[in-house]
Amino acid sequence: MDRRLLLAGFAATLVAAASRAATEGEPRRIPVVARKFVFIPSEITVKQGESVVLEFTAPEVAMGFFAPALGLRALIVPGEVAKVPFTADKAGRFDFLCDVFCGDGHEGMSGHLVVQA
Amino acid sequence: MPADFDRRDFLRLAGVGAGVVFASGLAGCAARAAAPSTDFHFVQLSDSHWGFEGPVVNPEAKTTLRHAVAEVNALPLQPEFIVFTGDLTHTTDDPQERRKRLREFKAIVADLQVRDIHFLPGEHDASLDKGAAFQEFFGPTHYSFDHRDVHFIALDNVSDPAARVGDEQLAWLAKDLATLDKDAPVVVLTHRPLFDLAPQWDWATRDGDQVVAQLMPHTNVTVFYGHIHQEHHHQTGHIAHHAATSLIFPLPAPGSQPQRAPVKWDASQPFRGLGFRDVERHGSAEYAIAQHGVTGA
């Protein structure tokens, strides 16, 4: 076999392996929109042990994301993406809410993060 | 109130249709030995949410505040002053409507016979404009004042929509407290709870622990607040925290259900769960709290 072909094949194998590893290792991105007065989606489902990044945007006014039982919190500023990395280590249904007062309806702005076993 | 006001008289007068609890900011006999001449009482009103519309939870939204004003005026012993611990108005995105509601609220409470009234904002009044409209009508959102020998501190934990007191106000608080003896009687007035009552319902102050840490060296501190639309009593160390009822709708007990939805109006018991409180300072550290329900009579 031609030495150059052998090296090229080896290099291609390395690139593919590296690419596969990167894909497998990357946490799943979950976009969430916070608008008056709802999170979209309001129910987020992940698997226990799965690494995800919750990516919040707020197109209208500043909002908050707070899941007290999970210790997760973020300020969501319009024009920016608030990234909340998260690996669920326990199964269950966890409440989250907007903790930045955003108007009439703020008190009902909440959702659930469901961690499946 | 007369300086030699008799405690039994207070209980007898305030106890008609009212619940009375005793709360002490300092457990100790020394407090009880203080001269009675420092006794006085004040009224706390809270959470009138003027401008709220929701017939299912309060079909009398346009009259409840007026009833409360009339019923405070009818107290047999008028308080020496009145405090209003926030959410004077219900929130609106419209700055002009916000000012209209504040103006109407101010006109209604102008009928109170007691002229010495201290106002605090709630998040419904102040969070959408960082307290700008509130200040136009009622002045600063945080301040302190002395009444008799008690130092009152009004703290703003709502002008920041993220429910922070903030570094600037914390520094002001430190300076204010530095002027006091450690055993001086202190009453803190605020809107949100300064402790984590129910974070899942946003019933907390994000940096409330820093406020409490500053208060801790002071041996005689009591906190009166609103926000949660019900009576609630809590201790952080020696500091007592007392939440007040609302004048628009009650809310469920902290964390008792998934949503903090208002308790619906009960036509068989109109105004149930709504009211105000009369706080009597007795001795140097004990407070008697008489709860008055709005009767609508």
What average pLDDT do the residues of chain B reach? Answer: 89
Structural class of chain B: alpha/beta
Number of domains of chain A: 1
The CATH architecture of chain A can be given as: Sandwich
Poorly predicted tracts of residues of chain B? 1-19, 24-36
Can you say what the CATH homologous superfamily of chain B is? Metallo-dependent phosphatases
Short recap of the structure:
Chain A is an alpha/beta fold. Chain A is built from one helix and nine strands; from the N terminus they run H-E-E-E-E-E-E-E-E-E.
Overall description:
- The complex is a heterodimer of chains A (117) and B (297).
- Chain A has one helix at residues 3-25; strands spanning 28-35, 38-40, 43-47, 51-57, 63-67, 72-76, 82-87, 92-97, 110-116.
- Chain A has 117 residues and is of the alpha/beta class.
- Chain A has one domain: Cupredoxins -  blue copper proteins (Immunoglobulin-like, Sandwich).
- In chain A, the strands form three sheets. In chain A, strands 2-1-4-7 form a four-stranded mixed sheet, with no helix packed on it. Chain A has a three-stranded mixed sheet with strand order 3-9-8, with no helix packed on it. A two-stranded antiparallel sheet of chain A has the order 5-6.
- Residues 5-23 of chain A have low confidence and may be disordered.
- Chain B has one domain (7-253, 263-293): Purple Acid Phosphatase, chain A, domain 2, CATH 3.60.21.
- In chain B, α7 packs parallel to α8 (208-215).
- The longest helix of chain B has 15 residues, at 95-109.
- The relative contact order of chain B is 0.21.
- Chain B has helices at residues 7-14, 29-32, 64-73, 95-109, 123-126, 132-138, 167-178, 208-215; strands at residues 18-24, 40-45, 81-85, 117-120, 143-147, 150-154, 186-189, 221-225, 232-236, 239-243, 275-282, 286-293.
- Chain B contains eight helices and twelve strands.
- The model of chain B is unreliable at 1-19 and 24-36 (pLDDT under 50).
- In chain B, strands 1-12-11-2-3-4 form a six-stranded mixed sheet, covered by helices on one side.
- The radius of gyration of chain B is 18 Å and the shape is globular.
- Chain B is of the alpha/beta class.
- Classes of the chains: A alpha/beta (117), B alpha/beta (297).
- At the A-B interface, loops of A face loops of B.
